Amino acid sequence: MRRGTTKKNAARSGSRPQWASTIASLRSGLHLNQTDFGQKLGVSAMGVSRWECGVQEPPAGAYIELGNLAGDPGCWYFWARAGLRAEDLMRVMPSLRGRLRKTALREFEIVNAGSGGRKLIKGKHELVAIPLLKAVAASHGEKGDSTGILDGSPVESMIAAPRDWCPNPSATSCLRVRGDSMNPLIYDGYIIAVDSSQNNREKLDGKIVIAWHRERGLSLSRLRRYDHTEVLQPDNPKYEPVTLRGKSGWKVLAKVLWWIGKAP
């Protein structure tokens, strides 16, 4: 209660918190009114106004989306406000390490290993923060998590990835893999990034997908379409495919975009 009162008094006196001013500067720099800005973040114009006045601070999830909207280097300020730490962010491109400046990352520890003397093309790389869900997608022969809605899964940590790896950032999330039926591409323990906005089976023939079944949970496989028959086909020939019949109960949730894993 006291914290809210302090923010209101600060707003009335014209002294806004830095986070409020930074949000207002971001919106102004994007040349958006409060309504259009709010639509990109899933909040009302009134909610944006309260942020910018310093009356109400955005929740962590909104800060992550603000960072995604801001791009590099402004993203780091917003992600830090969301509580992300250096160990929560996986730097997937060595060239990005040399670009990130300590002045823009006061709450992050930068690791410069592997940056070498490579020259960067200004403005070429942008990052988005992707939630790593506390969920496991099983390959054939294993049972995955029971959740059938990826958006509702709890978040374990965050991963930073290049924006061009994530065509739909708001629909992108990561989860872990259990099992070896997608060897030699995807191994047990790998992390996969999935896009839940890409779930139209007619456009996913030959693609690796996340499917869900009430009894089998989340499953990782390759979708194959043969005339009027759809099959979840493992890449590992040791495992049998699963036919998706009309009443089989299987639902395709997302397309797999990419995957990462530790070297042996």
Summary keywords:
264 residues, alpha+beta, Umud Fragment, subunit A, nine-stranded mixed β-sheet, 25% strand
Helix share bin = 10-25%
- Radius of gyration over C-alpha positions, nearest whole angstrom: 21 Å
Give the SSE string: HHHHHHHEEEEEEEEE
CATH topology of the domain at 126-264: Umud Fragment, subunit A
Distance between the termini: 52 Å
* Major beta sheet, strand line-up: 2-1-3-4-9-5-6-7-8
Short description, anyone?
The longest helix has 12 residues.
SSE topology:
Elements: H1 2-13, H2 18-29, H3 34-41, H4 45-53, H5 60-70, H6 75-81, H7 94-99, E1 127-138, E2 155-162, E3 172-178, E4 191-195, E5 208-213, E6 217-226, E7 229-233, E8 242-244, E9 251-260
Parallel strand pairs: 1-3
Antiparallel strand pairs: 1-2, 3-4, 4-9, 5-6, 5-9, 6-7, 7-8
